Amino acid sequence: xxxxxxxxxxxxxxxxxxxxxxxxxxxxxxxxxxxxxxxxxxxxxxxxxxxxxxxxxxxxxxxxxxxxxxxxxxxxxxxxxxxxxxxxxxxxxxxxxxxxxxxxxxxxxxxxxxxxxxxxxxxxxxxxxxxxxxxxxxxxxxxxxxxxxxxxxxxxxxxxxxxxxxxxxxxxxxxxxxxxxxxxxxxxxxxxxxxxxxxxxxxxxxxxxxxxxxxxxxxxxxxxxxxxxxxxxxxxxxxxxxxxxxxxxxx
Length: 251
What we know:
Layout: E1 5-13, E2 16-21, E3 24-30, H1 32-42, E4 47-51, H2 63-72, E5 77-80, H3 86-95, E6 99-102, H4 104-108, H5 111-120, E7 125-134, E8 137-142, E9 147-152, H6 153-162, E10 167-172, H7 184-193, E11 198-201, H8 207-215, E12 221-224, H9 226-229, H10 235-244
């Protein structure tokens, strides 16, 4: 059985870690490099850094931040935000990132997924899907969750796998920051349909929610932010609890 992963997420705005609820009301949560080093020592399996305003502000993810993180951590990390070309990906991987996450650019130009996976290998191409339930449909949102589209989430997940994505980062905007639990039904539906790993994001509030998303939600990895940033849950203790619940973890 494959080991399940715990993935702290650091949303970056103006070089600082921020956290909000349902993608709004952002509050400062600390220095991203310092937090990354702490999570690495606590036993996080991977890290995700998302420059959440990069696409909106038409600028690139900060390569210098990636270089600083690469010097401080010894676990894989993914970087996303404002990535729209092979040149962007090359710069970030060259700066030390292990994987890149694309969202808005992939929705705008789905062929970008094919290009990136062929150029760099699918193992380092993550497609982020920000999904919100509207009028009976799960719909993809872009630009840091600000822009709704008519693209249906489950169909898009299937398409990005077919185009060469190596992993999907599925965020439920409805659950994000609420601490009420992950979107297990949607996550399980997508996990059952796909052969590539699904990282569940949005809604973690206690240790039981992680157990639920790995069992009911069938996720391969679980991502969370505020509960780690504000020291509500220690990663090492969480992994021990999950192991006690019968979930295969790297301890």
